[in-house]
Write a structure and sequence with these properties.
By secondary structure, this protein is mostly beta strands. Among the domains are: 43 residues, no CATH class; 43 residues, no CATH class. It is built from one helix and four strands. A two-stranded antiparallel sheet has the order 1-2. It is elongated, with a radius of gyration of 33 Å. Bound molecules: zinc ion (2 copies). One zinc ion binds next to loops.
């Protein structure tokens, strides 16, 4: 009769005193930046001895301005940009708008046409309903 475990309450983790639960970024091991590290999906919960938990914010993920056209890091030449998360350094600077090559901007469309008045020339196509004559060959 040595069933000592019988009436023990189920505990999945008996956390000792002085252990603190902190969300950290797996890329840097530091505190995740809200909206940046979590959107990169690298945030997990780590247990630290009280006092040894990270106090600095993640230095791996930073918010960057990307070029809307190339999706790369925006240069001052990029016409349209948006804020995003800098996930890894494989993203280089925008190669489309790097300032070295002339960007062909086709804005002036030389129309030789005379100002066409808004004449809705809708050729009323006679709706030829395919009336199938049910020729009952009687
Ligand atoms: Zn991070
Ligand atoms: Zn660009």
């Amino acid at each position: 009769m040595s069933r000592i475990h019988k009436d023990l309450p189920y505990k999945d983790f008996d956390r000792p005193d002085g252990i603190t639960e902190v969300a950290v970024c797996s890329k840097s091991g530091k505190l995740p930046i809200e909206g940046v590290c979590d959107s990169a999906g690298t945030v997990y919960t780590e247990y630290f001895a009280r006092g040894s938990e990270p106090t600095e914010q993640c230095d791996h993920h930073t918010s960057v301005t990307l070029c809307a056209e190339s999706g790369m890091i925006a240069t001052p030449y990029c016409p349209e940009t948006y804020e995003s998360v800098y996930v890894d350094d494989s993203i280089g600077y925008c190669t489309i708008h790097d300032g070295t090559q002339h960007v062909e901007v086709t804005t002036t469309v030389t129309t030789t046409d005379t100002n066409t008045t808004n004449s809705t020339d809708t050729t009323n196509t006679t709706n030829t309903t395919n009336t199938t004559y049910n020729t009952t060959g009687d």
